[in-house]
């Protein structure tokens, strides 16, 4: 019974701390800026600062910068350079969102409680990542394309705008989520992703226009049946001869 109570306390204690929505920036390297939820101004974080951040706070890292953010249960996140994120703390069903990564790259190290994954999720402008594993990377570019790599455990990924389909990443697999598209079929982390999908567009051949937007006379003169029907026979009834009375239809009416 005592052992059970100890385990229960260990499981519930992080949740109690989480109720306050507080995380800790334990390490700062390079230029990092922080804006509290109640402020409109970013302020720099010192390299030795042990900054507490909470839901609604925003962090951004400059070139060659890095920060480590700790969760009360021992999980932590390593935020790479040129990244921007918002701390979150809200429940969505049985899952709790901890971060909205706007742009950049973050590596997540999630602790297991009682041998089970924590009920955490990570958001981006495009993707929703549910934590079933322990270690994974999330990268978001300026086009809001999210790349998710699973290093240990399992991770589920879906498009926020299309929540009716998800993919499950096993260790060593990754996926790509574009805006308003389902996640790509998982591939190896070493494989190359086609991040920039190119759709071939063929320009339609249309006549040139004059200043008023109408087809020019020169184009209309040349754009006749002779060019469009090169195999048309040349004769007195041909549709391509110069006779203006050519091939007129004969109409008959009942008497």
Structure description:
The chain is 11% helix and 40% strand. The N terminus is likely disordered. It has 3 helices and 19 strands. It has a 17-stranded mixed beta sheet that branches. It is mainly β and 255 residues long. It has a single domain, classed as Sandwich (Jelly Rolls), CATH 2.60.120.1440.
Strand and helix map with partners:
Layout: H1 2-18, E1 22-29, E2 32-35, E3 43-44, E4 51-54, E5 58-61, E6 66-70, E7 76-79, E8 84-92, E9 95-109, E10 112-113, E11 116-117, E12 120-123, E13 127-131, E14 135-140, E15 146-152, E16 155-159, E17 162-169, E18 173-177, E19 187-188, H2 217-222, H3 225-228
Parallel strand pairs: 9-12
Antiparallel strand pairs: 1-4, 1-6, 2-3, 2-5, 5-8, 6-7, 7-9, 8-9, 9-14, 10-11, 12-13, 13-16, 14-15, 15-18, 16-17, 18-19
Query: For the record, what CATH class applies?
Result: Mainly Beta
The share of residues in extended strands comes to 35-45%
Determine the N-to-C terminus distance: 110 Å
CATH topology tier name: Jelly Rolls
Overall tally of structural domains: 1
User: In which range does the helix fraction lie?
Assistant: 10-25%
The largest sheet, given as strand count, sense and whether it forms a barrel, is: 17 strands, mixed
